[in-house]
Amino acid sequence: MLLVIIYLIINSNKLCLFSLQMESSEIVCLYCGVSYLIYHEFHQLHTQLAQLEAELQEMRETTQREKAQHEALELGRLELERALHQAEVKEKKTREELEEINQNTARVLRDEFEAKYYRKRREMEEEYHKISEEKERQLRGELGDLEAEKLRRQREDLERKTEEREKVLNDALQKANKNLDELRKNVQQLEER
Length: 193
Hints:
Layout: H1 2-10, H2 17-20, H3 36-192
Keywords: Signal
Region (Disordered): 138-193
Signal peptide: 1-16
């Protein structure tokens, strides 16, 4: 019986038209000898086989879709990992560039500050020297004026003292001359006596 079913499955296209038109009351096809039960079983198996093939095809398609989705997800994951890696590399490179820019900026600012500091210091030193020289000239001028004033006062004082001494000496000389005159007179008087 199994062989007949297999034979029928293999040769399903070769069944005679009479066996396909058998009624359920007929037991065997008069033309080819196929039993209705076998035919009915064959028909059910053929229907189940068609359903199973359809399900299998659907499962294959689902599997293909899932496989395609899985491959797409895997590609997406790989692409995401690659993009993440590129982003990390770019971030690292950007961080290094920013660090280098910051160092360069700090160095430039430090150099500018030092240059400005030394320039300001030089300007202040020049200003200090200028002020010092001006002050020194002013002090020398004032000192010269003070010295001149001091010398003038000393000269005036000396002249005054000289005049006073001359006066004292003149007075003393006049006194002495007067005394001398008196002494001469006294001497003459003594001589005359």
